[in-house]
Amino acid sequence: MAEVLEHPPVIVNGREVDAAAIAAEVQNHPAPDAHSAWQAAARALVFRQLLLDEADRLEIMSVGLVDAEGRKLADEDARIEALLEQEVQSPHADEATVQRYYDRHVDRFSTPTIVEAEHILFAASPDDDLAYGLATGDARTAIRALKAEPGRFAELALKHSACPSKEQGGNLGQIGPGQTVAEFETILFGLGEGELHPEPVKTRFGVHVIRAGRRIEGERLPLDLVRDKIGQYLEEASWRRAVTQYLAILASQASIEGIEIGGADGPLVQ
């Protein structure tokens, strides 16, 4: 039988937030458990009520605003948008700010390095010590053979590899960051073009013999290509911080019962 969670009434400035509305709002707040989801949903509706109360105080009315797709906002949503537009200011991302962000996050604005990978997989489970040990020994034997005769890679892959790539001589094609397991990737990207790793490489799939092929180094994208995207990101982040601060001020001035208000995370307008 499912556990029924009991929650105290949530009251904002003397008015109770409808429990059914909180239950409906839960679907917009994924969380690891039902209690956390309820808490997030209740906070979102508390902040929404605070904004509507402030719009009432400032006599802000609906102005027929539309969303990003051109659809007219509901009256309450439009009043909240108008309130935030009037009361919240955030700085414009000027050229110097954009340049600083670009310089400090080089990796985000670079094309990834890619390396053509060749491997021979001797399959074994890491949980099977005997099989894993035998696979490691077989990989060492293959490495010795390749050091003596590098041209035998395709032959040995076809004969021994447990990977479908054996039909292509062990060639996995071009590998970029995050496309394979960390142990494999670390070794591959540390190799020079055409270099064979001198030791077996152990992963959850078994034991690998790895050789790097053609390498294409990543290149930094020109600022002109990403300037607008950086500016938009910085201004959106600044706006969210400003809204969070504004909500914290409203919460500090309000009477709120039934829930702890720790921050202004989550959607403000549905």
Task: Describe it.
The model is unreliable at 263-270 (pLDDT under 50). It is elongated, with a radius of gyration of 29 Å. The longest helix is centred in the last third of the chain and has 30 residues, at 223-252. It has eight helices and seven strands; from the N terminus they run E-E-H-H-H-H-E-H-H-E-H-E-E-H-E. Strands 4-3-6-5 form a four-stranded antiparallel sheet, sandwiched between helices. It has a three-stranded antiparallel sheet with strand order 2-1-7, covered by helices on one side. It has helices spanning 19-25, 34-57, 75-87, 95-104, 129-148, 153-160, 182-190, 223-252; strands at 11-12, 15-16, 114-123, 171-175, 201-203, 206-216, 256-257. With 270 residues, it is of the alpha+beta class.
